[in-house]
Amino acid sequence: MTFKDLLLISSGNLWRMKLRTFLTVSGVVIAIAAFVAMLSFGAGNQRLITEQFNELGLFSTMYVYPPDKEEPNDSLPEPVLDQQAVETLAGIPGVNLAYPLQAFSVTVVALDTQIVTKAQALPGAAVQTKIFSQLVAGSPYSSDSAGEAMVTENVLEALGIKQADSAIGMEIVVSVQAASIDSGLTRVIQSVGERIGERVKDFRSDSYQRAEYWQQAAREELNGAMMRFFDGFMNARATISDTLTIVGVLKGAKRGRLGIDGVIIPIQTAFRFKSGGFTGDVVDLASAASQGKLFLASGDTSTQSYSRVTLDLDPKVLYQPIRDSVQALGFRTFSFAEQYDQIQRAFFYFDLALGLVGLIALITASLGIVNTMVMSIVERTREIGVMKSLGADESEIRRLFLVESGAIGGIGAAMGILFGWLITRIASLIAKTIMENQGVDAVELFALPLWLVLIAFTFGLLVSLAAGFYPASRAARIDPVEALRNE
Fold first, then answer.
1. Angstrom distance (rounded) from CA 308 to CA 304
2. Which residues of 448-460 are buried (b: 16+ CB within 10 A; e: fewer)?
3. For the chain, is the Cβ count within 10 Å smaller at the N or the C terminus?
């Protein structure tokens, strides 16, 4: 018998038993639909993450952090993430650009509205990278010293500006409260004469020979000087302001490691705010004190250390050699490409778990195929005997029943893929509706790539053929004489 003959006979047999065939195919349809819907969810999320990584250029972005203080290396001096380190990092092969994180608190005034937000100083080359080029209106600033700024949609919302286009060309007043070491020292010096007078007034002639008296007096004066220093440092701040023009509006600030501050300022323009001293941040003061840089000239950036440096990498270069070179310098790294590899592994296990659940449903459906085929053999024993008596051999009988089970699996798999796709469309519509009601961007959580269609159809067909192997072998072994005696 030719394959065409086998297909015609098999389809005729399946058509005669419509109800049984329908129920058996329905089991395969449900199993394949569940398999497709679950893996479609994993594929959709994986595609969404990949698109976001590509859109933001995260595959070519690496963060560099100072050494971990919890794991000191006594044999080597601890490297400092300063301007010299930035230049060294920029010279690593495969690094297109290296720029530090310079963020500080600012007050922004526009349209009689005042808000407090974060500002970040960036060179012009940095705002050309994908991370900072997600503009909804306008363009990047023209130079590192321009009196211009880029703001996020969050800042516009806080200022009461609804349309991003209307903010382009608008002037904002950006100011910082700069606390300087000079103001703290001035407060200490101003109190010296007063403290000497009080000490002379309280001086007792019988106490000058007692060491305890001088120790107690020294502790009191030192504590008092520190309190007056911090009082002058925190409360005698100078306000440094500058008027900047909004030239670009970025998408809303991101959370986590990919934090985008509210106002992006050209690096040379931002230097005006730093020139007055510390921008009111006690952390800056503590950091400078711990590094022995407390009394350096205000605005001296040659010895300034950074909490993070961002590397923009060549997309054609693997991140592993660059990461190893940075770590060899003693710094810690965070690579989005490395994180993506970990996400990929997590998705692999996630898809595997979902696939196993769907496969279990498919195996359960295969039991229905076994039952259908076995019942078909019992009912068609005489037919099998007639075919054998007319010259059909065991291999042809086996192929006949395998074609029948394969037809059940093929039809069920095709309809299951379609049904699974419909389920994902309904689920996607519900998910997007919930996202919109929650005020977040609606994204597509499901995907039906070609590889998933092929895998689902192949699984459905193979499992059906495997389920039909035992009935087909049993039919092939039927004795034609005994079969013809069967009424």
1. 12
2. beeebbeebbebb
3. C
For residue 148, which phi and psi values (nearest 5 degrees)?
A: -130, 165
SS3 316: coil
First to last CA, the chain: 26
Give the tokens for residue 474. Answer: 């049993």
| Confidence band, pLDDT 50/70/90 cuts, at residue 88 | very high
Backbone φ, ψ for residue 176 (5° rounding): -130, 155
**For residues 305 and 312, what is the distance between their CA atoms, to the nearest angstrom?**
20
Phi, psi of 70 (to 5 degrees): -75, -15
Residues 94-120, mean pLDDT to the nearest whole number = 87
**Residue 65 located in a structural domain:** no
C-alpha 149/C-alpha 388 separation (Å) is 88
Q: What is the pLDDT of residue 420?
A: 92
Q: Are residues 180 and 268 in the same domain?
A: yes
Same-domain check for residues 420 and 467:
yes
Residue 113 shares a structural domain with residue 25: no
Report if residue 385 sits inside a domain. yes
- The answer as to whether 86 is a domain residue is no
Say yes or no: 383 and 303 in one domain: no
Tokens of 429: 């519509």
For residue 143, the model assigns a pLDDT of 87
Q: For residue 255, is pLDDT > 50? A: no
Which of 285, 318, 351 is the last residue before a domain boundary?
A: 318
Instruction: Indicate whether 302 and 380 sit together in one domain.
Output: no
Residues spanned by the domain of 104 = 96-318
> What is the amino acid identity at position 473?
S
Distant-in-sequence, close-in-space partners of 406: CB < 8 Å, separation ≥ 6? 461, 464, 465, 468
Tell me the CB-side half-sphere exposure of residue 317, using CA atoms within 13 A. Answer: 17
Query: In angstroms, rounded to a whole number, what is the distance separating the alpha carbons of residues 445 and 432?
Result: 9
Instruction: Find the length of the chain.
Output: 487
Predicted confidence at residue 256, as pLDDT, reads 47
Does a structural domain hold residue 213?
yes
177 close to 273: Cβ distance less than 8 angstroms: no
351 and 220 in a common domain: no
Instruction: Give the integer Cα–Cα distance in Å for 85 and 81.
Output: 5
**What number of other Cβ atoms are within 10 A of residue 140's Cβ?**
21
Q: What's the order of all strands across the beta sheet hosting 95-100?
A: 95-100, 309-313, 61-65, 332-335
The verdict on 175 and 284 lying in the same domain is yes
The helix or strand, by DSSP H or E, that contains position 173, with its residue range, turns out to be: strand 171-178
